[in-house]
Amino acid sequence: MYKGIAIAAVVLAAGTVFVNIILGMADHHTVDQNSSIEAEETVTYKDQIYVPKGNLETYLIAGIDDPGKVQEVTEYDGTGQCDVLVVIVRDRSTDTCKLLSVDRNTVTPVRSLADDGTYLATTDIQLSLAHSMGLDQNMRAENTVDAVSTLLKGQKIDGYAMINMSAIQVVNDMVGGVTVTIEDDFSERDPSLKKGETVKLMGAHAENYVRGRMDVADGTNQNRMQRQNDYEEAFKPAFRSKCDSDSKFPLQVYHALEDYMTTNIGAKKFCRLALLLSDNKKDDRVSISGTYGSDEEGWQTFTPDEDSLQQAVLELFYKKKD
Hints:
This protein has about 325 residues and is of the alpha+beta class. The chain has helices at about 15-25, 135-150, 165-175, 205-210, 220-245, 250-255, 265-280, 305-315, and strands at about 45, 50, 55-65, 80-90, 95-100, 105-115, 120-125, 160-165, 180, 200, 260-265, 285, 290-295, 300-305, 320.
């Protein structure tokens, strides 16, 4: 496997608003953003026939374990893994979104690439490693999109935004901080975050809360993902409040993120997604159950339950045939 690249920074909220929302608002290089996929064929599941919903747009937002702003990669060192992966499916007919948080440790077919992007092989490894292949940032992003699409039974992903985790502090502080109740033991990572206290997260404390894993609580990614979901729910009203008082706020956030991300989503689309996501309800989130374990090198793994994965794909992209 690709050398224990500690899942280190992980976060930008694994499946978290920051990523979600924030993501929801940028746009850099524009992609063909017609509707997503639509496998023409129907799917039969438990004697029920399903057909593609149609009129969908699908986006992948990922938090990248890289410090600072996006920089040119000159040699492979295993860094730059995904710490957070969120799939956003927008139904244009209802102007609503569904979110799927994908565990970074999900074992799925991932393409291995040489430094110049030459295809080497496809191996079942942790999804987070897809973004550490090759040296070009766009190539890494597209390889991650390919891996997520493969996991989701070949569904097309229309756009992506890969955001370095350091951006957490930037956006958190732009909304004036985010108030949460500390449920985990942060004594080793950030003693100022005391279990049981309700605090307004600012600056580095917000990043510690969202990214902390190995030295927080039981050290698992599933624990962190829950914490990131909590952060997301607290972030939404703070973000929405800023938008209500300043209609240009989403665009300001986008510009603040530009140096921290690689994306092919346009600014206008980003801003629209951001507003939709800030209004999103908890029950609009889809999940995949599975089994946690470790590989031969001791790194955490998550093996999706095939039935749960199929149900998630159907809920996101299909509807029952009349």
